[in-house]
Amino acid sequence: MVSIDYQGRISAGDTLRGTAAEGKAFASPLERLALDSRVAWRFENAQRRQRYGRLVTGTVERLGSKVAAFEEALARFAWPEDTSFTRARLVTPSNASDELSGRLAARVRPQDEVTRYYKYFSSGHMPWTSTDLAGGEYRFSVTQGGETETVDIALDDDATWGDMVEQVAAGINALSLPVQAEVVRQNAPNQYVDGLVAVGSALAITVNPAVSAQDVSLADEDGHLLAELNLKATTTPAFAAETMPYRVRVDSTAHASSVRSHVLDPGAASPFAAGEHQVRFSINGVTEEVLVPLEAEMTMGEVLRVLAGALNSSSGRLRAEIRDGRRPSGLETQPLLADGEYLEVTLVSPKRGERMYLRDYGGPVVDDVLDFFDPTAALPAAPVNGERYIASATANGWVENRIYEYDELSATWDETTPTDDNTVYSEEDDAWYFYDGSSWTTTVGGTLLDSLGMNATATPGMDARVVVDGDEVVSESGQVAVDKGRVVFEAQSSYGEALPLRVVEAYGEVEDRLADVVTAYNDLRAFVLPHQEIFEDGFADRWRAAITSREGELAGYGIREFTAEKLLVVDRETFMDGVMRDPDAARSTFAGLGGLVADWQKASLSARTPDLYERLLPKSALEDPGPPIAEEFDLTKRKTLQQVITSLATTAMPEGNPLLETTDVLRNIVTIKRTALTAPLAGPGGIMSRQG
Length: 692
Prior knowledge:
By secondary structure, this protein is of the alpha+beta class. Helices cover about 30% and strands about 25% of the residues. It is flat, with a radius of gyration of 44 Å.
């Protein structure tokens, strides 16, 4: 018996003919026609194709919004960094919320990370008050992050308290260490600075919360200046962050000073003359020259690397990095853009108000000279070997502007003709001179940075200005610590209105955010299930796998599936009991790297990569692979006829049946007919072979 089971939708059925003892399996023509025909399946599939074409675009777009809502709920979910049930705090709304996202990030530090922004306070006095120190030189040291630097202070005999604290603050701020000092003036305790009880002018020593080296110590080295200031270290709070509201506005964000070159072809030939070129950087008025040794036949990539190395080795305050970029190819036969490289120089750990400037400072640099010398009367008398001068006039064999160096072996003056931008240091004048092609002047020359496109202050830098509850705080990093260092705000973009935030007890907030996640999950699953037929197999269970893989674990927190759709429900009381029993284990289950939220995020990312349309059932799966309907019907009729004839020849009938008590002639006729039909139906190339 032949039957076609198409995608499990058609099943074979048998009936019995004859007595229970004598009958044999027999499929009637009508039954076989109903069972083997795909007309019903084709009708249903045509409906599916219509639904597919009509619904696919709208369904995928709506699905995208459901997935986005689920991912947003996952992003808003957070676990407190301090898991202690009594100390745990969170800031609401979440950093991923529409209110804060991209504007402001808020964080409650765990107890072991809490550090005060204000490290030391001095006593306070009216600024005109005299001090008990005599005029003279004083020195103290500042140690931070294993580095120690000293500050020298020169006090006048009539220096006042205000003079002294201003000088000390300026001296500390001039250090390269990321510690700063400010003078606070207040008329009542805690008026402007929480924890500062001094009245009048007081010195406050601070470290920005973004700085890794938070420990600072100071010690008198020469004199008793610090003792006179009566500096006292602040204490770290021992209790949890206060549950309270804040209103925060960001007027400006922080940007460190930086300079970038053009994006260059690293394989192009360098246009610079061989020799030591010179650049100068300035940080808040403190300058330093840096020599950049370039060789002949360098490439531009090599020039960038030599310059970066020279800047990085000159000061810990500069960071020079080579980055990849895209540049115009300049070739008609090539793509418009080609790979390139550029150099970026950034000021490291800037202090409030610090700016960095970078400029050319001549080059190639030639050896120092003693002075300019006029040879009109005579050449220098009694020169020593290596003595060098620049001729300020032409006479006695010397030519104006050329450099002359005495060689005692030959007792002659060796001549060097300067080239454009040659730079020389004059010991007599304690000054640099630059050759402009016709004369030596103090006008700064040089083309290295200019040719690379590195303008002096491409990004001049800016401090963040954050207003917390009406008080403006200036931060060089954009981070602001409040509540004695327990709460930190980070400015990400400026905005006009003050955002309302609140520090709350954590686990009630965790419970609410988990409820939002579960609601979004149920909404997503309830949408996908009715449309599963147009998506790939198992699509609805992509997100459910994170549940089934930890079903028993989640049950301990009151999270289980219900209804035939396998939606989620959370028993809040059981959830809180589980959290209180072991907060660290709960954090690992829900917010750890391999936790529920992380697995859901991975599943969601996988589902929409490259996009949700890729998860649709391919249209080819809905195409009918069988023959045309007319041919199908004809094949079915022929097959049915063969089955009828075969059954007549093989089915046993009861004895005495008058139909079988005829002569052998009838049986022979049946045999002949069956043989005649078998060849076209079942032989090679016959209809049965086409049926498969």
